[in-house]
């Protein structure tokens, strides 16, 4: 079978008779390397392809500033702005023991190993071998034979194919590292939300207990009036129904608090039956509005955006690798070998051989071109994902700011409504006792007051969750140690 062009070229630089190592061997090595590079240069003239373009840092036009900003600088451990020791303890426990975060850390370790594996292609390969054998024919004495060998192989990265692979793996490592920061921020934000929801349920339970007491006292008043012939039986029944309704709401609030406690336990890596201490319940205090900063700088500190950009860089490098794979490859090899009939004579005579192989794709059915098109589409996809991530991040910040303004306005109006309803209830209760007001008016105003009181509690804690959403949208890396590790 006739040799291919590549095999014919390799046969000219891989003589079957190895030569001893010496000055002449080194001269041959330099001559063959120069010959191979020249041959590859000639082949390249028939190759087509263009290197990929670099991706922009800001893929869309960013606003000059966000719609609102405060002056307080958000700390890396952003939940500390709430100044709640119980929340701080839970966040520390979650960062240490949450299994989803542990999985993200394992993915980071795997990405580091893959990047190291890709970088190993830049280093020449060196293998050692050793043999020992004994042969004996019938009627003859046995003979021993020993051998040692070294084989070195190296691919000359003429077109940057290996370097592009390394850059792609390193960019993916940066992306996975940012994924870890994103997972930590998401975890701490989810835990903070569950914590404030639990605080809301505890406050609601306390409020419902007080409302139940009020309803029972009014029911007792109506019962006495009924016994004195001053009220009808339907008034007593309606008030007793309100007492029962409040008791039902108490059971619901208690069950919801238990469910939130279980969720907090899971987020902190504990079993659902593990008792969670929520800390002493205090009135929700919204911290000062944080400084939202300049969107361009915010873009560079959001880990999910940085992860999307790193994956764009990885896809860009993968495209460069696919383009370079169309070009010829130059592989150099050096083999050193020694054999002897006794171990002591192994190092007396070394034989060496040099190989230089040029491999050029000629006909592959369009496989390499398809790989380039696939890598190009993957880069376009990564660019679109990067742009979308930036847009969604901007929306998260603006939505959190809008929600906080809305809830602050609603809470202010709710306070006015509650104040007016309480004044009306006081007047109606007084008139009812004097027999000048109908019970249905008292009942309607009472239920309105109690509903407004529960809404005020819910809105106060919803504002805390609005701030959690804003801090999450603005947060960068989750610990100072993690941030320093990137330097």
Automatic annotation (TrEMBL):
It is found in: Cell outer membrane. It holds the Pfam family OEP. One of its GO terms (cellular component) is cell outer membrane. InterPro entries: MdtP/NodT-like (IPR010131), OMP_efflux (IPR003423). The keyword Transmembrane applies. Its main location: membrane. It comes from the Bacteria. It is a lipid-anchor. Gene3D superfamilies: Outer membrane efflux proteins (OEP) (2.20.200.10). Keywords: Lipoprotein, Membrane, Palmitate, Transmembrane, Transmembrane beta strand. Transmembrane segments: none annotated. GO terms for molecular function: efflux transmembrane transporter activity. Belongs to the outer membrane factor (OMF) (TC 1.B.17) family. NCBIfam families: outer_NodT (TIGR01845). This is TolC family protein. It comes from Hydrocarboniclastica marina.
